[in-house]
Every structure is written in structure tokens, then in C-alpha cells.
């Protein structure tokens, strides 16, 4: 019985920047197969791997995958401030025994609790390879996998690849260095006609189930990818607490300076206090937005996220995490900041409610504009220029809700604030997802 192909390509064409990289490519890969991509720089090897991973669409043709994929790009998707163990748990939660086994395969066990920033490039590459061992994906996509590896690490890599193929896995690799992939199919890019040169049928590897198993099963009760994404974002936010502390410090200092500048005039303080608190909250919430997507885009983590989640849900998870870890602490100290402006206790509920709705709206708008400016030059300047004008309606009605006496007019302004927030919930993640997809494609 003929095995089911893990990957089928049907008349694939790939064009980038008006240049045809791949034209009318068809072929299939089966369990145990390997495909080596060769060709000079700039002919589309990495682009072809990204196409197989679903990170960019083909110009023409169809692609069918019947197996999950694991990705190792030119970046290792590692956070420098986290340890090796913490980095491996970010995307694939496994028991410590599975982590030890994967690290043992790559001679990394002594580095389990070492921050990644202290590792050499070759060691970081081996940590990226260890993430492959922790997946149960049959199809591995590798972009320059041996870059930075010494002779000993290269031998370990060849053993891991051979074992994966013998157990029914499939490998696609692009490399300028010769790879030890026996009986590998060859795809030469940069030529007028693109054909996959097949390996001899008699040399196809057979599945050997008695070989040591290195593909670990996932948890017995798998977590939904979006919930795991939320867990990852909260973990990263808590490991970078300085961003939240900076926002708190900014809010406190600004409120103190405004109170000192206005002087001991209770009537004036009470009149302008809500407006100052609103503006300071908006500006403080903007501080962490620059790194909302940039850090993941720079180290390659955004590619791994896109292979697990739709871009809109990636944006939604980051927006929720941003509000909880950055804006919520600002709201919690709002009553304390109100003391600087001698605001009455009766006005605090309206102030906190309006600022809560406003901060939620800002989080969604900021998540959208941060995605739009991803990859732009000097996006730290462009981000507030795009975000603050969008917040003007919420700022106007938010300050009116604090200064208007209780009654129908006050309820109307709060209703408008709630309407702005409800409108941003579906719209902003959708636009952010489109921007992330275009930026990474």
C-alpha cells in the first residue's frame, strides 16, 4: 500500500517583489523523505520554506499538507533574558523529563538554567534544534540549520535528522553547507525550470519503529493554542516588569508635576484633575506599545506564532496581555493620584469607569497601530502619531463624563465610551492581523 504524501505541490508559482522565484513546481514528499534546496543567495530558498510553512501564499498553484510542521528559521526564536528551559516552555509545554531528554540529545543539559544571552551562537542554534525534538510534527522545515555548529554538534544534528526520517518524519532543508541527507531529493533554485530531482525509489528509507523515540507526545489534556498564547504573553510581560514600572513612574511623576504647577487652588485642581489624569494615563499606556510585536518579529518568534494561530488571535492575545500588565496597574493607582487634585470620593467611580473604558479602547487601538507600523523605520515616532488622533474621541467623551454632573448627559457620554470600546474589539484585532500577515509575508 502506497503511503500518504505528507506534502503535495501542484503547479506552484512564487513571486516576490515582481520577480518570479519558482515557476510551475509540482511534487510530493512521503514519510522518510528529505528535500534539499540548493542555489546561490537570493534565489528564493528561504521564501520557498516560508511558503511551505504557510507564512506566505503562493502566487499560483495549490499546496496540500497532511502533517503538522516544525519550523527552524535563520533566527532561533529565543528570548535573551530567559533561560534555556524557559525558552523551550514558551511554545511547547512539556514535563522536565522531556526537556532533559531533548537537551541531552544535543549536549545542552548543563545549560538548562543558563540565560540565553550568555550562550554562543552555536549553542543558541542547538537550543533551536532542541525545540524540534519536543514537537510531534512529522514535517521539519529547516533554514540554514547547521550555521554556527561545530563538528561535534554537526554530527549530533545528522544523527537526529536520520532518526527522524527513519521514524517516518520528513525534512526540507536549505543550506549553503553540505548536508548529510542520504537519498535526498534535490531542488535547484535560480534556474529557468524548477524540478524536484527524485531520490532512487530503491533507496527510500523505511520506518524503523525500534529506533529510540525522540518525538514526544503533547500533554494528555492539550491547551487551546490561544490560551497557551495568552499564557506565553503574560509570562513574557511578567519577566519584563520594568515596562510596567516605567509606566507607573511616568504617571506618578506627571501627576505630581501638574499638581505642583497648578498650586494649592482646590477649585482649579478639581476642575482640571480628571483631564490631567486621562492624558497621563494615555501617554503612560503608550510606552510599552513599541515592543508589542517588535521583539517577536526580531527574534523569529512571530513566525512560530503565526504557524499556530491566526494573526488576528495573535494580536488579540497581545492586546489583552498589554492591558492587564500595563494599563490595569495604572488604573489601580488612580484613586491615589486623585488625591493630588483633591477630587471628591463621589466622583471617583465615574472617573475610574471612564478611564477603564478609555484604556481598553487605547489597548485595542494601540495593538492595531503597533501592527501597522511593524517593520517601519522609526516606528517609535510613527506609533504615537497614529494612535493619539484615534484616541481623541474617547478622550473628549471620557473627560466630559468626569466633569458632567450625574444625569442623562453623563450616561450618554459613558455609553459612547462603551460603544467605542465595543467597536474596537472586533475591528482592531482584524486589522492588526492583516497588518501582521502582510508585514511578515
DSSP summary, beta strand count: 9
For the record, the count of structural domains works out to 2
The biggest beta sheet, please? 6 strands, mixed
- Bin the helical content: 40-55%
Give the structural class: alpha/beta
Mean pLDDT: 84
Number of helices: 15
Classify the beta-strand content into a percent band: 5-15%
Separation, N- and C-terminal Cα atoms: 38 Å
Our Rg estimate from Cα atoms comes to 26 Å
User: What letter string, H or E per element, gives the SSE order?
Assistant: EEEHEEHHHEHEEEHHHHHHHHHH
Spatial sequence of strands, sheet with the most strands: 5-6-7-3-8-9
Residue runs with pLDDT of under 50 for 5 or more positions: 200-221
Shape: elongated
Description:
The protein has 441 residues and is α/β, with parallel strands linked by helices. It has two domains: 7-203, Rossmann fold, CATH 3.40.50.300; 225-440, no CATH class. It is 54% helix and 12% strand. It is built from 15 helices and nine strands. The strands form two sheets. A six-stranded mixed sheet has the order 5-6-7-3-8-9, with helices on both faces. Strands 2-1-4 form a three-stranded antiparallel sheet, with helices on one face. A hairpin with a 2-residue loop joins strand 1 (7-16) and strand 2 (19-29). Helix 7 (241-262) runs antiparallel to helix 8 (266-286), helix 7 (241-262) packs across helix 11 (311-332) and helix 14 runs antiparallel to helix 15. The two termini are 38 Å apart. The model is unreliable at 200-221 (pLDDT under 50). The chain crosses the membrane at residues 245-265, 309-332, 352-374, 381-400, 412-436. This is Heme ABC exporter ATP-binding protein CcmA. It is found in: Membrane. Residues 7-223 form the ABC transporter domain. GO terms for molecular function: ATP binding.
Amino acid at each position: 500500500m502506497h503511503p500518504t504524501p505528507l506534502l503535495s505541490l501542484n503547479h506552484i508559482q512564487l513571486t516576490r517583489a515582481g520577480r518570479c522565484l519558482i515557476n510551475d513546481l509540482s511534487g510530493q514528499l512521503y514519510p522518510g523523505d528529505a528535500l534539499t534546496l540548493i542555489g546561490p543567495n537570493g534565489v528564493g530558498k528561504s521564501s520557498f520554506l516560508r511558503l511551505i510553512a504557510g507564512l506566505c501564499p503562493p502566487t499560483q498553484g495549490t499546496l496540500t499538507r497532511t502533517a503538522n510542521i516544525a519550523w527552524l528559521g535563520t533566527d532561533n526564536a529565543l528570548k535573551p533574558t530567559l533561560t534555556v528551559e524557559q525558552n523551550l516552555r514558551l511554545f511547547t509545554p512539556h514535563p522536565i523529563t522531556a526537556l532533559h531528554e531533548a537537551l541531552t540529545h544535543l549536549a545542552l543539559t548543563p545549560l538548562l538554567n543558563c540565560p540565553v544571552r550568555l550562550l554562543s551562537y552555536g549553542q543558541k542554534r542547538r537550543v533551536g534544534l532542541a525545540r524540534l525534538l519536543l514537537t510531534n510534527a512529522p514535517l521539519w522545515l529547516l533554514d540554514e540549520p547547521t550555521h554556527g555548529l561545530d563538528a561535534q554538534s554537526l554530527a549530533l544534528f545528522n544523527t537526529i535528522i536520520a532518526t527522524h526520517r527513519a521514524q517516518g518524519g520528513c525534512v526540507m532543508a536549505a543550506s549553503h553547507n553540505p548536508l548529510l541527507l542520504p537519498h535526498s531529493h534535490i531542488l535547484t533554485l535560480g534556474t529557468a525550470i524548477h524540478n524536484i530531482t527524485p531520490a532512487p525509489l530503491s533507496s527510500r528509507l523505511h520506518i524503523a519503529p525500534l529506533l529510540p523515540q525522540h518525538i514526544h507526545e503533547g500533554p494528555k489534556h492539550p491547551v487551546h493554542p490561544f490560551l497557551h498564547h495568552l499564557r506565553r504573553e503574560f509570562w513574557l510581560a511578567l519577566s519584563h516588569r520594568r515596562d510596567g514600572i516605567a509606566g507607573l513612574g511616568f504617571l506618578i511623576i506627571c501627576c505630581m508635576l501638574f499638581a505642583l504647577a497648578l498650586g494649592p487652588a482646590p477649585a482649579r485642581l478639581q476642575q482640571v484633575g480628571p483631564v490631567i489624569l486621562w492624558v497621563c494615563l494615555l501617554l503612560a499606556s503608550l510606552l510599552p506599545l513599541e515592543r508589542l510585536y517588535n521583539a517577536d518579529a526580531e527574534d523569529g518568534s512571530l513566525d512560530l506564532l503565526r504557524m499556530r494561530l491566526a494573526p488576528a488571535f495573535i494580536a488579540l492575545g497581545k492586546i489583552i496581555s498589554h492591558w492587564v500588565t500595563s494599563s490595569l496597574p495604572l488604573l489601580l493607582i488612580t484613586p491615589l493620584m486623585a488625591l493630588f487634585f483633591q477630587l471628591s470620593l463621589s466622583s471617583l467611580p465615574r472617573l475610574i469607569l471612564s478611564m477603564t473604558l478609555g484604556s481598553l479602547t487605547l489597548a485595542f487601538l494601540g495593538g492595531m497601530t503597533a501592527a501597522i507600523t511593524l517593520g517601519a523605520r522609526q516606528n517609535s515616532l510613527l506609533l504615537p502619531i497614529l494612535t493619539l488622533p484615534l484616541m481623541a474621541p474617547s478622550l473628549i467623551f471620557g473627560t466630559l463624563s468626569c466633569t458632567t454632573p450625574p444625569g442623562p448627559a453623563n450616561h450618554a457620554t459613558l455609553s459612547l465610551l462603551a460603544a467605542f470600546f465595543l467597536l474596537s474589539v472586533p475591528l482592531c484585532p482584524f486589522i492588526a492581523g492583516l497588518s501582521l500577515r502582510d508585514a511578515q509575508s
